[in-house]
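Structure ticket #2291
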Amino acid sequence: METKNIMIVGVGGQGSLLASKLLGKLLLTRGYDVKVSEVHGMSQRGGSVVTYVRFGDKVYSPVIDKGEADFIVSFELLEAARWTEYLKKGGTIVVNTQKINPMPVIIGAAEYPQGLEEKIRAAGMKLEAFDALSLAEEAGSAKAVNIALMGRLSKFFDFTDEEWLGALEASVPPKFLELNKKAFMLGRQA
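Resolution: structure written out below.
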């Protein structure tokens, strides 16, 4: 199998590491060679966090170069726009439509860019944009945005619900399992 590349991008504290852990566990149970790499850019202070997940028959490096990502999963619109050059031709961006103001916007030094969804689509990229925050809140916690996004991503793979939910059971503490299962299914059905 040709190596597949998924980038998970967001802002520190949004749960991108849990999302990559869930994806990694699922892919390992399917027998793929999996490499995961995390890049923290001031993540504890609300900066960008990027996780690379690569899988296939044999994967030699955990890093995804520009133009190689089959999927970019983004927790926020501006983060999606920042990483579009990594998407390969024919790739897909799965994005939460939530907007999180970066520090320059918070202090008034800049304005949040407008029309990001339209700009991404106009550049010829496939965009799956949806309100993952509302789905997470419907499931019981705004912190489940990451799992709602994984639910939406799951539509692009031929893994069963049972396989996804099994990886979820192996990735989250039991007391949060039902909430996360609900968020996953809401994202999958969105």
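Closing remark: The beta strands are 4-11, 33-40, 48-56, 69-74, 87-96, 126-130.
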